[in-house]
């Protein structure tokens, strides 16, 4: 059930990366439902077109910008296209990302490089490119980075993924400080496991997903909370609340937490 409505989203153009499925898809639908215009970025043109049909069937509006890969060159070309075509952008939601769960010993360096390119460098590139655009306007603008509780509460077999999310959280916190005197809001969204296709790649044998399925967040609930927070002065969104509490205790008592929650941490 959707709670409340954020009227400031109405008629705002908001970029959503990784919009073809999962959290990004639900965020795009929620923006459109509230009268906003989601600018959809993903690698699958077919899925973006399907999402466009769904949004338009519900009297919404959206624009799509497929991208072959989240390489620096492809992103630069795409940003130029968006700026030339759309003229005014009000918000950016860096949602594109993926994970691969492996021990450090088994970590594939190509997987690690790809995770950093998609999870970190792409988000930084989009943020840096649109930052001057956001700062030149007096009205509110917003950058939202979908991060992860893994950035705060790392567990075994998530070294590459946790490192990428830790980097993105660090970038987000610095960007917020550097723009605090402006009308730009910068928000990190730190999530526990969400029931999406993320685990098709991250957890190929399904063991972790099976272990945590009862705790998984619904992407619709995440999307509703994110969109209701757009253009407000929200520093962080942390879901679920008890995992955020756990991450605070972990920072205070890391050795104790690792000892007490070893069986929970080892679920991958």
Automatic annotation (TrEMBL):
What UniProt keywords apply to this chain's record, in alphabetical order? Answer: Oxidoreductase
* InterPro entries the UniProt entry points to: NAD(P)-bd_dom_sf, Sc_DH/Rdtase_CS, SDR_fam
Does Oxidoreductase appear among the keywords?
yes
Q: Which PROSITE patterns match?
A: ADH_SHORT
Has the keyword Oxidoreductase been applied to this entry?
yes
Family designation: Belongs to the short-chain dehydrogenases/reductases (SDR) family.
Q: What's this protein's name?
A: SDR family oxidoreductase
């Amino acid at each position: 059930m959707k709670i409340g409505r954020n009227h400031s989203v109405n008629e705002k153009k908001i970029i959503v990366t990784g919009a073809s499925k999962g959290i990004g898809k639900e965020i795009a639908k929620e923006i459109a439902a509230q009268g906003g215009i989601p600018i959809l970025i993903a690698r699958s043109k077919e899925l973006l077109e399907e999402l466009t049909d769904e949004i338009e069937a519900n009297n919404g509006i959206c624009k799509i910008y497929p991208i072959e890969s989240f390489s620096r060159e492809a992103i630069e070309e795409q940003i130029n296209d968006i700026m030339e075509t759309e003229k005014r952008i009000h918000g950016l939601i860096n949602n594109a990302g993926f994970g691969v769960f492996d021990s450090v010993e088994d970590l594939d360096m190509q997987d690690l490089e790809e995770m950093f390119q998609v999870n970190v460098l792409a988000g930084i590139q989009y943020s840096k490119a649109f930052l001057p655009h956001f700062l030149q306007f007096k009205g509110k603008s917003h950058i939202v980075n979908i991060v992860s509780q893994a950035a705060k509460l790392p567990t075994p077999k998530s070294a590459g993924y946790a490192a990428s999310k830790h980097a993105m959280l660090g970038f987000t916190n610095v960007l917020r400080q550097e723009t605090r005197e402006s009308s730009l809001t910068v928000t990190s969204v730190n999530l526990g496991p969400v029931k999406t296709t993320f685990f098709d790649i991250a957890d190929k044998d399904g063991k972790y997903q099976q272990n945590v399925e009862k705790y998984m967040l619904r992407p619709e609930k995440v999307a509703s909370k994110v969109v209701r927070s757009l253009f407000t002065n929200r520093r962080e969104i942390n879901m679920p609340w008890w995992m955020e509490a756990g991450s605070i205790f972990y920072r205070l008592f890391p050795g104790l937490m690792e000892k007490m929650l070893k069986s929970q941490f080892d679920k991958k």
